[in-house]
Write a structure and sequence with these properties.
heterotrimer; A alpha/beta; B mainly alpha; C mainly alpha; A: 9-stranded mixed beta sheet; 15 strands; about 20% strand; C: two-stranded antiparallel ribbon; 11 helices; 2 strands; about 5% strand
Amino acid sequence: MHAKLRRRAFLAGTAAAALPMPAIAQNTPIRIGLLTVKTGPLAQGGIQMEQGTNLFLKDRNNMLAGRKVELVVADTGGNPAGTKTKAQELIERDNVDMIFGPLAAFELLAISDYVAAHKTPILSLAAAEDMTQRKPNPYFVRASGTSAQNMHPLADYAAKELKYKSVMTISEDFAYGYEQMGGFQRVFEDDGGRVMKKLWPPIVTPDYTPYIAQLSGVDAVVQGFAGSNPLKFMKQYKDAGMTLPVLGGGTAGDDALLKSFGDEAIGLISASAYTSDLDTPSNKKFIAGMVRDTGAIPGLYAAGLYINGMVTEAALEKTGGKTDDKAALIAAMRAVSLTDSPRGPFHFDHFGNVVGTVYIRRLERKDGKLVQTTIKTYPNVSQFWTFDEKWFLAQPVYSRDYPPLKS
Amino acid sequence: MKRLALAVALLALATVPFWVGNSYYVNIATQILIFAVLALGLNVLVGYAGLVTLGHAALFGVSAYAAATLINAGHGSVVVAIGASVATLVVTAIFAILALRGTGLGFVMITVALGQIVWGIAYRWISLTNGDNGISITARPAPFGLSLTSAPAFYWATLVVFLVAVGAMAMFVASPFGAALRGTRDQARRMSALGYNVWLTRFLAFLFSGFWSGVAGLLYLYYNQFVSPQTVALSASAEALLMVIAGGTATLLGPIAGAALVIIMKDVASAYIERWNFVLGAIFVVIVVFMPEGLVPGSVRLWRWAIASLRSRATAPALGRESEP
Amino acid sequence: MHLWLILAVNSVTLGGLLFLLSAGFSLIFGLMRIPNLTHGSMFMLGAYFGVSLIAAGTGFWLAALLAGLGVALFGAIIERFVLRRLIGAELAQVLVTLGLSFMVADACLMLWGGDPISVETPVALRGATAMLGMAFPTYRLAIILIAVVIAVALWGLLDRTRLGAMIRAAVDDPAMARVVGIRVSHLFTIVFSLGAGLAGFAGVIGAPILSVYPGLDQDMLPLALVVVILGGTGRLMGSLVGSFVVGFLYNFGQALFPELAYVVLFLPMLVVLVVRPQGLFGRVTL
């Protein structure tokens, strides 16, 4: 790990591209601000976000649309007040043209109004549904997906292909958990399944046994843990002798955890917007770069940021490299449509949320290593699944008690 | 001399938006003032009453949450301010009644438990507090029609509140009540024998401290336009305590300096030092070990020591000559 | 019925782990009157040491012992060079341990990275044991045994050895102990490093269940706090009973009142503090 005392400018040492500069010399660099978490419990995802961003810039020799790129990295500490302060630092002191991040939904909610008021495009992975639904931010672009976006197809798969009739869900007691499980429940129940019980352990739960003990009498267990909790949960689940199949969301089966998981995770079926076994040229290149630079297969945090870079690059091509007209920039970003990316083809809906492929994978051991194997793909999945957009928005947002259990 | 220094300081504070350069730094200054008010409030208990608490962020947070709820329910600034103060005082009273059952470490532990309970409620009572998503308010209030959206405007409003707080603290310290409180800190039994109601003195001090923490909480909400359970977490209480201890409990300047130190470390230095958490912990350890009375008195002590050793070097030869027979 | 049985057994096993975690804390609190806020970080540090030792090929149990020794050494250094300068200033000592916890946590993040690390259950104890008509993870049952062994060893130390007698004397009346010739400051170093070592050892023992990740320290410290407050400080019996009480509170509380998860732990602690500040068994009045 290299000590970084200078936080400024990731100036890659690789050979500068010998591109002839356009006559209208764009001398000012493009400034990208990265709001990430580098200290504290959320650092795991935050560090990966930075790695993904750095790799993207390195792959582009630090140039986008003929202009040099300066990356300014800010550590929010994983708390909303810190995020606000760092967002102010990036926008008011460093005059960044756009912001990548932040990581967590509660961080994003703390700065959403502020960033919109300053007309700064913000590309985040935070999955809070209403950011692109009932309280949309016009400067927001999300290439990863809402909390429920992966879970709708997962429920469809569970009901129609796996033929499960009943499940219990377990996920952390906060909005991300509610939204994931709510999404699963709606589609699963529409397809004739029943959710018998929904368990909500606190985010900080050293021992899941009291909850695991309540999981029984169903066809499968659906979980949506994030961060390092999936590791703990799967371990304790197997230790408790549980044999029910486990279905999970994107963070539950995050490919970045493949190096940490053990045999207890084999058989986990997860739905994610990013899968490391996707065979596209850009994904192969991305994974090769990540393995070379960090020694590990990347997961959705690194991939998400790399993709944000690609979105920015494509948008800048549309604006001719200009970043001063913020309205034009955000419009160009939302108009981006890519066919070759680490997550495959995607574009954005009119709220700035991605419409792309969701991959259903099974975790397996091949040649002694844990890998994800895609077993089904759902192309062109939007945040509204197959529901009518107006109807969907008229319903309350997914929460702890919504949708109410039918059973 | 002191008056001059005070006047210069006031002038500097009043003109911050002009000489600090960037609106970002004006905002940092605002944050320092807000947390200085919190630290001053906390110091009433820690420094003057001798009661260390690790649950003060709860009082700060209750005010912010109450205000946010009232604002979103459509009430005006005055109602919000009164409502937040009442909520804070009620919770403070509960804290005080329970915590004062213990002294010393018992007191600390009770405040920890109470703080954790408030945090647990903030996290889990979602219909009341919206859980970890927190509550946001869309706009800052505009008392008397003055807009506080710009950084300098809000800074000045905060400065006014800050100065009122400092004034109140100064009056409190100089008052008979302040003296009585220090008495209960140093010689509780004797105070009791003299006829003072030690419990009541401490209770009232707790309320006074809670009130000002609530004021800081209100300012905090207006500044951030957002409040979440992290505001009332144990680490927030620990940081507040750090500000007081780092700056020094015996003076009024101490908590202010401590607040400035912690805020600058967290928000400004963190931009330049990747392992700022480590450095913050290290600074804390160094201050507590080498300057246990705090940065302000410690610096004064070091300054005096430096001056004295310079003086003694200057006079040594003379002494030497004198001592010759 | 099935659920209650699982919860009951798990309460006991969790109690065992909590005892390992908090025995050290209770000792330090009892003798030195300091709530050692670095305790969670020491638990985590021990776990990380264990991870590295195991990765280098050391066996699980040896790694646990060595990790414990490593953290004990670290504790001795802290006590000798930092805490001893603050003798008598209890508040300062508490605050220093707080600052140190920041430093240790960040250092661990720096050295071992942000990803969670899994530790394999020792081979001999994998799988489940059939008991009372159900299967329970063998390793968790083994933890109860380990906790009992450590409890007996500590009791033996405190009750049967000269060192233990000195420690008990110093807990009851430090001034008198000094008068009698007991070098209380040496005892402080010994006890602090013993407490730290126990925490580090516990970190490795707990790792197959909890895994090792940044934030582990903050997750475990409140539990140690609650155990010691409930059970009382300065007495081994207090930690033991407190651990099992918290084990039950945790398991049944989480299952029955998940919305009140934090309240369920801290409310009893609050009640005890207010009503009986020395804890259920304690001798040291706070």
